[in-house]
Design brief:
Elements: H1 10-15, H2 19-35, E1 40-44, E2 47-51, E3 55-61, E4 65-69, H3 71-78, E5 86-88, E6 91-95, H4 102-126
Helix pairs in contact: 2-4, 3-4
């Protein structure tokens, strides 16, 4: 995968990754879609993204880790459960040599779905 690569689909993104990343990225994708079946899957900022009344999460493959981007609130809410991973304001890095924390990812995605639905309800009430 080169910096110049552009992707039209999540399948194309995953296929362009090194083989070692592909299975992890596919597992992550499936976990997100099971946790948020109504979410729209797309490419945004040249990364797989999932939207439902706004962005839910993004992910990306790197040389040594999988980047998962559940926004700032998704990180801050689950920070106590993320101590085994490198985090920053809106991202967590899952090392390639460890199993993905599927249950935690599922909880984070469901949290983001509820957060976006609540925001949408508030917007609808204001109108």
């Amino acid at each position: 995968m080169n910096k110049q690569d552009t992707f039209e689909t999540v399948d194309a993104y995953i296929s362009a990754q090194p083989e070692v990343n592909q299975a992890l990225l596919q597992t992550l994708r499936e976990t997100i879609l099971k946790a948020a079946p109504e979410a729209e899957e797309l490419i945004s900022y040249q990364m797989p993204a999932y939207k439902l009344h706004g962005v839910l999460v993004y992910f990306a493959g790197y040389k040594n880790h999988i980047g998962f981007y559940p926004t700032g609130s998704g990180i801050s809410t689950f920070l106590p459960e993320l101590t085994a991973y490198k985090t920053s304001k809106g991202t967590v890095q899952f090392p390639l040599n460890k199993k993905l924390p599927i249950a935690l990812i599922r909880k984070m995605v469901k949290y983001r779905v509820q957060e976006n639905l609540l925001k949408q309800q508030r917007k609808t009430k204001k109108k």
